[in-house]
Amino acid sequence: MASRLDRLVTLLETGSTPLIRNTAAQQLADVQKSHPEELFNLLTRVVPYLRHKTWDTRTAASKALAGIVENAEKYDPNGEDDLAKDESKIEESGIKKEEAVEPTPLAEGQLSLDTLDIVSILKYGKELVRGGDRGHDWALASLDPAQRLAHQKKTLDGRLGLLGPYSEEELEYAVPSTNQNGSSTTLAREDSNGLSRQENNKGTSTPSEESGLSARQLNQLKRKRKREAMTAGSKSRLVDLSVRRTNT
Protein backbone atom coordinates (compact mmCIF):
# COMPACT_ATOMS: atom_id res chain seq x y z
CA MET A 1 0.00 0.00 0.00
CA ALA A 2 2.76 2.42 0.92
CA SER A 3 4.77 1.74 -2.24
CA ARG A 4 1.67 2.16 -4.46
CA LEU A 5 0.80 5.40 -2.71
CA ASP A 6 4.34 6.68 -3.17
CA ARG A 7 4.21 5.91 -6.91
CA LEU A 8 0.88 7.69 -7.36
CA VAL A 9 2.09 10.78 -5.53
CA THR A 10 5.30 10.81 -7.56
CA LEU A 11 3.33 10.65 -10.83
CA LEU A 12 1.72 13.98 -9.93
CA GLU A 13 5.14 15.51 -10.55
CA THR A 14 6.86 13.16 -12.97
CA GLY A 15 3.95 12.16 -15.23
CA SER A 16 4.97 12.68 -18.86
CA THR A 17 1.52 13.86 -19.97
CA PRO A 18 -1.43 15.61 -18.30
CA LEU A 19 -3.46 12.44 -18.82
CA ILE A 20 -1.06 10.41 -16.68
CA ARG A 21 -1.08 13.07 -13.93
CA ASN A 22 -4.88 13.24 -13.93
CA THR A 23 -5.11 9.46 -13.78
CA ALA A 24 -2.79 9.43 -10.75
CA ALA A 25 -4.96 12.11 -9.11
CA GLN A 26 -8.09 10.01 -9.69
CA GLN A 27 -6.45 6.91 -8.23
CA LEU A 28 -5.41 8.88 -5.13
CA ALA A 29 -9.06 9.85 -4.67
CA ASP A 30 -10.01 6.17 -4.99
CA VAL A 31 -7.46 5.32 -2.26
CA GLN A 32 -9.31 7.66 0.10
CA LYS A 33 -12.60 6.00 -0.82
CA SER A 34 -11.24 2.52 -0.14
CA HIS A 35 -9.23 3.46 2.96
CA PRO A 36 -10.93 6.35 4.86
CA GLU A 37 -8.34 6.10 7.63
CA GLU A 38 -5.66 7.31 5.18
CA LEU A 39 -7.18 10.80 4.91
CA PHE A 40 -4.53 12.75 6.80
CA ASN A 41 -1.73 10.68 5.28
CA LEU A 42 -2.98 11.54 1.79
CA LEU A 43 -3.39 15.21 2.60
CA THR A 44 0.12 15.39 4.03
CA ARG A 45 1.55 13.98 0.80
CA VAL A 46 -0.57 15.88 -1.74
CA VAL A 47 -0.83 19.38 -0.26
CA PRO A 48 2.90 20.27 -0.73
CA TYR A 49 2.48 19.81 -4.50
CA LEU A 50 0.03 22.71 -4.57
CA ARG A 51 3.08 24.98 -4.26
CA HIS A 52 5.13 23.20 -6.93
CA LYS A 53 6.87 25.39 -9.50
CA THR A 54 5.28 23.48 -12.42
CA TRP A 55 1.75 24.40 -13.46
CA ASP A 56 0.80 20.88 -14.55
CA THR A 57 1.90 19.48 -11.20
CA ARG A 58 -0.14 22.06 -9.28
CA THR A 59 -3.18 21.31 -11.44
CA ALA A 60 -2.89 17.55 -10.88
CA ALA A 61 -2.42 18.06 -7.13
CA SER A 62 -5.54 20.24 -6.93
CA LYS A 63 -7.58 17.59 -8.75
CA ALA A 64 -6.27 14.89 -6.42
CA LEU A 65 -7.11 17.03 -3.39
CA ALA A 66 -10.63 17.68 -4.70
CA GLY A 67 -11.23 13.95 -5.20
CA ILE A 68 -9.88 13.11 -1.73
CA VAL A 69 -12.15 15.67 -0.06
CA GLU A 70 -15.14 14.49 -2.07
CA ASN A 71 -14.62 10.90 -0.96
CA ALA A 72 -13.93 11.84 2.66
CA GLU A 73 -16.63 11.32 5.25
CA LYS A 74 -18.76 14.41 5.66
CA TYR A 75 -18.36 15.91 9.12
CA ASP A 76 -21.52 17.07 10.86
CA PRO A 77 -20.77 18.98 14.09
CA ASN A 78 -24.38 18.45 15.20
CA GLY A 79 -24.50 14.78 14.33
CA GLU A 80 -24.44 13.59 17.93
CA ASP A 81 -27.18 16.05 18.88
CA ASP A 82 -29.37 14.87 16.01
CA LEU A 83 -28.80 11.26 17.06
CA ALA A 84 -29.82 12.08 20.62
CA LYS A 85 -32.97 13.81 19.34
CA ASP A 86 -33.87 10.80 17.20
CA GLU A 87 -33.46 8.49 20.19
CA SER A 88 -35.62 10.75 22.36
CA LYS A 89 -38.32 10.79 19.68
CA ILE A 90 -38.33 6.99 19.58
CA GLU A 91 -38.65 6.82 23.35
CA GLU A 92 -41.43 9.40 23.42
CA SER A 93 -43.41 7.85 20.57
CA GLY A 94 -46.99 7.33 21.64
CA ILE A 95 -46.69 9.84 24.49
CA LYS A 96 -48.70 13.03 24.26
CA LYS A 97 -46.56 16.10 23.96
CA GLU A 98 -46.79 18.39 26.95
CA GLU A 99 -48.17 21.85 26.44
CA ALA A 100 -45.78 24.76 26.52
CA VAL A 101 -45.36 26.16 30.00
CA GLU A 102 -46.10 29.85 30.30
CA PRO A 103 -43.16 31.95 31.51
CA THR A 104 -43.20 32.93 35.15
CA PRO A 105 -44.31 36.56 35.56
CA LEU A 106 -41.67 38.97 36.78
CA ALA A 107 -41.75 39.97 40.41
CA GLU A 108 -41.99 43.61 41.41
CA GLY A 109 -38.75 45.44 40.72
CA GLN A 110 -37.39 42.86 38.27
CA LEU A 111 -36.31 43.94 34.79
CA SER A 112 -36.93 42.19 31.48
CA LEU A 113 -34.50 42.18 28.57
CA ASP A 114 -37.43 42.50 26.16
CA THR A 115 -38.44 45.88 27.57
CA LEU A 116 -35.12 47.15 28.94
CA ASP A 117 -34.30 50.60 27.52
CA ILE A 118 -30.60 50.27 26.71
CA VAL A 119 -30.49 53.71 25.08
CA SER A 120 -31.62 55.44 28.29
CA ILE A 121 -29.13 53.44 30.33
CA LEU A 122 -26.23 54.49 28.11
CA LYS A 123 -27.42 58.11 27.95
CA TYR A 124 -28.58 58.82 31.49
CA GLY A 125 -27.17 55.99 33.60
CA LYS A 126 -24.96 56.87 36.53
CA GLU A 127 -21.31 56.21 35.77
CA LEU A 128 -19.50 53.59 37.81
CA VAL A 129 -16.08 55.09 38.44
CA ARG A 130 -13.47 54.35 41.04
CA GLY A 131 -13.71 56.69 43.95
CA GLY A 132 -17.23 57.86 43.08
CA ASP A 133 -20.25 57.74 45.37
CA ARG A 134 -18.08 57.46 48.47
CA GLY A 135 -20.51 59.50 50.50
CA HIS A 136 -23.41 57.33 49.42
CA ASP A 137 -21.48 54.16 50.25
CA TRP A 138 -20.67 55.45 53.73
CA ALA A 139 -24.29 56.43 54.24
CA LEU A 140 -25.36 52.87 53.44
CA ALA A 141 -22.67 51.36 55.68
CA SER A 142 -24.77 51.94 58.78
CA LEU A 143 -27.68 49.87 57.43
CA ASP A 144 -28.19 46.18 57.94
CA PRO A 145 -28.11 43.97 54.79
CA ALA A 146 -31.90 43.83 54.43
CA GLN A 147 -32.27 47.61 54.60
CA ARG A 148 -29.36 48.13 52.22
CA LEU A 149 -30.86 45.73 49.68
CA ALA A 150 -34.27 47.38 49.91
CA HIS A 151 -32.73 50.81 49.34
CA GLN A 152 -30.72 49.64 46.34
CA LYS A 153 -33.80 48.05 44.76
CA LYS A 154 -35.79 51.23 45.31
CA THR A 155 -33.20 53.47 43.64
CA LEU A 156 -32.18 51.04 40.87
CA ASP A 157 -34.26 52.59 38.09
CA GLY A 158 -32.94 56.07 38.83
CA ARG A 159 -29.30 54.98 38.99
CA LEU A 160 -29.65 53.06 35.73
CA GLY A 161 -31.11 56.11 34.01
CA LEU A 162 -34.47 54.50 33.21
CA LEU A 163 -36.30 57.49 34.72
CA GLY A 164 -34.58 59.96 32.41
CA PRO A 165 -31.95 62.63 33.10
CA TYR A 166 -31.31 63.83 36.60
CA SER A 167 -29.26 66.46 38.38
CA GLU A 168 -26.60 65.30 40.80
CA GLU A 169 -27.70 67.92 43.31
CA GLU A 170 -31.34 66.86 43.09
CA LEU A 171 -30.72 63.12 43.37
CA GLU A 172 -31.83 62.05 46.82
CA TYR A 173 -31.24 58.78 48.55
CA ALA A 174 -33.74 57.83 51.20
CA VAL A 175 -31.60 55.86 53.62
CA PRO A 176 -33.77 54.23 56.29
CA SER A 177 -31.94 53.78 59.56
CA THR A 178 -32.87 53.39 63.19
CA ASN A 179 -31.25 55.29 66.02
CA GLN A 180 -30.92 54.14 69.60
CA ASN A 181 -34.56 55.07 70.27
CA GLY A 182 -35.55 52.95 67.24
CA SER A 183 -37.67 55.54 65.42
CA SER A 184 -35.69 58.02 63.31
CA THR A 185 -35.04 58.00 59.55
CA THR A 186 -32.21 59.83 57.81
CA LEU A 187 -32.45 61.38 54.35
CA ALA A 188 -29.07 61.75 52.67
CA ARG A 189 -28.47 63.90 49.62
CA GLU A 190 -25.57 63.45 47.25
CA ASP A 191 -23.81 66.56 46.03
CA SER A 192 -21.78 67.09 42.84
CA ASN A 193 -18.60 65.87 44.56
CA GLY A 194 -20.12 62.46 45.30
CA LEU A 195 -20.25 63.20 49.06
CA SER A 196 -23.40 62.79 51.11
CA ARG A 197 -24.74 65.45 53.40
CA GLN A 198 -27.50 65.22 55.99
CA GLU A 199 -30.50 67.48 55.78
CA ASN A 200 -29.89 68.28 59.44
CA ASN A 201 -26.19 69.12 59.63
CA LYS A 202 -26.09 68.97 63.36
CA GLY A 203 -22.62 68.36 64.77
CA THR A 204 -20.67 69.50 61.70
CA SER A 205 -18.26 72.40 61.62
CA THR A 206 -19.46 75.72 60.26
CA PRO A 207 -17.55 77.66 57.56
CA SER A 208 -16.56 80.27 60.14
CA GLU A 209 -14.94 77.60 62.31
CA GLU A 210 -13.01 76.13 59.38
CA SER A 211 -11.88 79.45 57.92
CA GLY A 212 -9.22 79.87 60.58
CA LEU A 213 -7.67 76.42 60.08
CA SER A 214 -4.48 75.79 58.17
CA ALA A 215 -4.23 73.34 55.27
CA ARG A 216 -2.67 70.73 57.58
CA GLN A 217 -5.49 71.13 60.11
CA LEU A 218 -8.11 70.88 57.37
CA ASN A 219 -6.60 67.59 56.18
CA GLN A 220 -6.59 66.25 59.73
CA LEU A 221 -10.24 67.25 60.13
CA LYS A 222 -11.18 65.53 56.89
CA ARG A 223 -9.41 62.30 57.91
CA LYS A 224 -11.15 62.41 61.27
CA ARG A 225 -14.55 62.69 59.60
CA LYS A 226 -13.75 59.76 57.35
CA ARG A 227 -12.88 57.61 60.35
CA GLU A 228 -16.09 58.64 62.08
CA ALA A 229 -18.14 57.74 59.01
CA MET A 230 -16.48 54.35 58.52
CA THR A 231 -16.80 53.39 62.20
CA ALA A 232 -20.35 54.64 62.59
CA GLY A 233 -21.63 51.06 62.78
CA SER A 234 -25.34 51.03 63.43
CA LYS A 235 -25.55 54.78 64.07
CA SER A 236 -27.66 56.78 61.66
CA ARG A 237 -25.54 59.96 61.73
CA LEU A 238 -24.09 60.99 58.35
CA VAL A 239 -20.86 62.94 58.36
CA ASP A 240 -20.16 65.74 55.90
CA LEU A 241 -16.71 64.90 54.52
CA SER A 242 -16.29 67.99 52.40
CA VAL A 243 -13.78 70.41 53.91
CA ARG A 244 -14.35 73.99 52.90
CA ARG A 245 -11.34 76.08 51.95
CA THR A 246 -11.43 79.82 52.13
CA ASN A 247 -9.15 82.05 50.14
CA THR A 248 -6.95 84.12 52.39
TrEMBL record:
UniProt name for this protein: Uncharacterized protein
Lineage of producing organism: Eukaryota, Fungi, Dikarya, Ascomycota, Pezizomycotina
Entry GO MF terms: ATP hydrolysis activity; DNA binding; TBP-class protein binding
Spans annotated as Disordered: 76-103, 174-248
Comp. bias intervals (Basic and acidic residues): 85-100
Entries under PANTHER family matching the protein: TATA-BINDING PROTEIN-ASSOCIATED FACTOR 172 (PTHR36498:SF1)
Span of the signal peptide: none
Polar residues bias locations: 176-220
Organism, scientific name: Botryotinia fuckeliana (strain T4)
